[in-house]
Amino acid sequence: MRASIVNRLWRWIATGLFFALFGIGGLALSLVWFTLLRLVVRQEARLQQLTHNSIRCSFRFFLNALRLAGVMDYRIIGAEKFTQDKGCLVVANHPGLLDYVFLASCMPRCDCIVKQALLDNPFVRGVIKAAGYLVNSGSEALLQACEDRLKGGGTLLIFPEGTRSVIGQPISLQRGAANIAVRAGCDVRIVQISCQPPMLTKQGKWYKIPDTKPQFIIRVQGKIAAGQFSDQHDLSPALAARRLTRYLRSELMRVDFENNEK
Fold first, then answer.
1. By C-alpha distance, which of 160, 159, 166 is closest to 202?
2. Which residues contact 118 (CB under 8 A, 6 or more apart)?
3. Considering the entire predicted model, what is its pTM?
């Protein structure tokens, strides 16, 4: 019993320390490393690739440090599939705060749509700008930017729920991801993320540490072609997006079914 209390206390302390490390690391990347890269690398495509590589390596270090400290454990199943995903839209469910970190740590390139409010965060603002992430302005220009990014060979990551899942409630998807896929005519990669017991959820603050060490499992599933949700008798993009959204919801809800069976 005492060992359990000590373990939970350690995980609580370590979680706080790593949250601070994440913020400090974001500032260091922005102010020092990315500044040096811009001074040395003049070719824009090369600069973007080095920037994304830096973010991926930083996230791997962060996750492995969390694991080594005993804060949590994780498995990423099928990460090698991401090497096939140029010009592909990656969609995932969104149970916790670390979901983007897990995926960006193993994707060769991760173009991401971020909330406008994050540009006001001094710890991540520089990373967002250096990586060239798209800002969710809710405008037609965003749809065009997403289409251009995909047709240019980028790999766009979207959480179609729009925010973190609410435990105990059915998954509800916004139609933006499907609209982008139908408009770009791209492939869609599905990723399922689960965590038992839940950690860093929408309802739970960082300091609400589970009694036992959380286990994250990220499953990279197959790809589907967005074009298959349109047919020759129905060329309506809106209807195709609704069909694709229903399909994505059924695939992402499988995580909940698996967790309930356990």
1. 166
2. 124, 125, 128
3. 0.91
